[in-house]
Amino acid sequence: MFIASRELPIIKPGRVPSINELVGAINNLRALYTSTVAGIKVSNPTQGVEGWSSITANDDGKNVYAHDIPVEYEVESDDDTFERRWSSNWLTRFIAISEEWMAEVEGTEEFNTRERVVEMAAAALACVAGMSAAGPIDRTFSFISRDRFDIVMHDKTINGHQDVGAQTWGAAVHLSRLICRHPEYFGIKSGARLLEVGAGTGLVGIVAAKVIEQLGYIDTTEIILSDYLDDIIENLRKNVHNNGSETKTSVIHLDWTEPDKGLGKFDTMYGADVCYDLNHAYLLHKAASELLSKEGTFHILIALRRTHIGMKESVQDAFSGKFVQPDGDALCIDKEDYFDVEKGLGRADETGYVRFEIRWKSKIFTSQNSQ
């Protein structure tokens, strides 16, 4: 693992590392602190920096699941805070002397090269400080189903807690991979109706549409991507359009508290990183109760974060089977499995992932009470 306090080259007036050393150091910091999830290319329109790192976590068909047991994760240590502060100070120090450093080669071809490195440092500093400062970026994700395909996601700036849907999160990549590797198990089949809730940038639904297309189900299978906030839906529509698919795909507004019964029932529902408040799992239960068919499956995959304690437990409680419907059926977790953090995938505060497979259990409490 890259340790900034040990490995960043010394920077001070009159002593600046080589271009290669600077680029290598900046890319290492970005890999350590960036909010970027898996991808083969990153661009930042607001910073004018494109292709300045190649963080890849592409599908190699291995290490999908961790063991189906809870994983113990370490809490953030004082060392983590120290390293982040060291990284921020190093980048700030470099940017502070950059004007003098660039002036040394003004009027030469190297001036543009040095200017680009300074831009890289500024963007990296935003990542160290937090992605909300880094501006909108485009990410290209690689997946393998029947054939390899790329998806380009446009992520917007996060300005507040309601804007989490503006960016692509690691859980969406994990769930997308699973759909690619096991399409039938995750609902991709002829005649299926699929729904992604809390779609955000839409990676999961867009990947599902591509897999449907590759498997030849475009005439019979449809997927709907949904979210709540207007600006998130606007960006979602753009991502769906820009990654065009022949699959019947639509984007809708969906209120989990009052799901539109006119949508009908869905065979499979997806939710990636859809819990940022302890109440969200219960709202998802309400939506699934209205929209999931009796034979359907709801796949929820969320990140485990030190900053969001209790999200996993809220899902476990909401789908424990205690909310029995009038017909005696209840939505219950049928399977629960865990994923380890993977280098180059996810964000700095993510310590792991958990996936829930939720199905209707038929009259489980009615039969128990009658005994």
UniProtKB/TrEMBL annotation:
Keyword set includes Methyltransferase: yes
One GO molecular-function entry: S-adenosylmethionine-dependent methyltransferase activity
CDD domains documented for this protein: AdoMet_MTases
Example of a GO biological process term: methylation
Keywords, ordered alphabetically: Methyltransferase, Transferase
PANTHER family for this protein: HEPATOCELLULAR CARCINOMA-ASSOCIATED ANTIGEN
Protein's UniProt name: S-adenosyl-L-methionine-dependent methyltransferase
Biological source species: Wallemia mellicola (strain ATCC MYA-4683 / CBS 633.66)
Record lineage: Eukaryota, Fungi, Dikarya, Basidiomycota, Wallemiomycotina
